[in-house]
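Format is chain and fold; as here:
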Amino acid sequence: MKFCLKWIFIGIFCTACNIQLDYNRIILAQIGDLSINSQNFAWFYADFLLRSGVADNLLFRNQFLESEIDRKVLLLVGDSLEFNKVSQVQEKMVIAEKQLILNEYFHREIFLKYQASDSLLRQTFKKSKIKLHARHLYCSSLEVANQVSSQLSAGSTFEELAKGIFRDSTLAASGGDIGYFSLGDMDPDFEDAAFALADGEISHPVKTSRGYSIIQVIDRWMEPMISEQDFQLHKDDMNAILRSRNIQSRKQKWTDSLAQTLQIEITDDNLHQLFDNKATIIQNDFHALLDSKIEMKSKFGKWGISDIAARLNRLSSSQVKLIESPQKLRESLRGIVVKEKILQLAQSKKWYDLPEIQWNINRQKEDVLIFYTIDHFLKDIKPRLKVDYTGLLQRLREKVSIQIHAEKVQELKIIS
């Protein structure tokens, strides 16, 4: 969709809010049989204030309430048409619930619990006091990057090569000079490589999130006075930077370790047999394999062809496309087992039963129904524009009884 569904798209709940909420379960608006109470409204509105940095005011409250009313209207319509009974919707609801729980587990059990060593914190703090002046040559692939690197070794200059590499006229004319930057300004992998270089040194091709870069540090500026007191004041900030930078690698290491404990086993013959029949399995047509001895073993027990097929059928189309080889299939099956274990671990955590977690799970499931309802009414409109969505809401709101208690919205106290 090309239009913005405003708050419908917002699915992140802040579990560490610094905003104090003063509310009881007061009904702020009644939409048919559904209602918006002050507690749920305040939870989500408080999160909006924190993330946006805006100050609470009555205009924002009313706009936010109108968006929540729009959600309820779409939910009512979806329920009345029994979209919640559609198998596709039910399957997506299950996926949405599991994904939220997985995200919450990684956030609480890995991200928030990360604590860098004192030596790493000090090293990062020193980097934060340095400004590097660098230039680079960008390449879309490692093959091209190696060619450019060879040209530099053979005597070509950054100025010469940049003209044929960059579409940006400034970078092309300056030899790829990106000026001065500090910790946190660039791609983490780019920064790590740059900080490791001596002035004038040229790196080997460095893989970043966008491709490959060959970097040269021209010079650097260092803050002359760095005190222990300053370090202690900013130690938590350094840990936050490292936590954000290392989360993906930590998640990977943790899941790899968990996978080892689960003792996942499948023979190469079984794996190739599954891969050769991938298309029919995804189409839920695997009767020819029912008599086979295909199985996968793990701490969860033995999964036969029916168990494996049922789980592969829950993968999204994009996940299925990634299974391009027996090895990729092995990785997918391994990932399925690991996810099931994480979901099991999550349910044993105290935070799993917190009201805000269960509320947010329910909201994610509602969003599935909302998007399906929108698709139902706007399926023949491509591209979909904001005016189409607005017009749809106006028509649907006319069919629903809506009562807003404006005085209750105004009286609600949300103190930052």
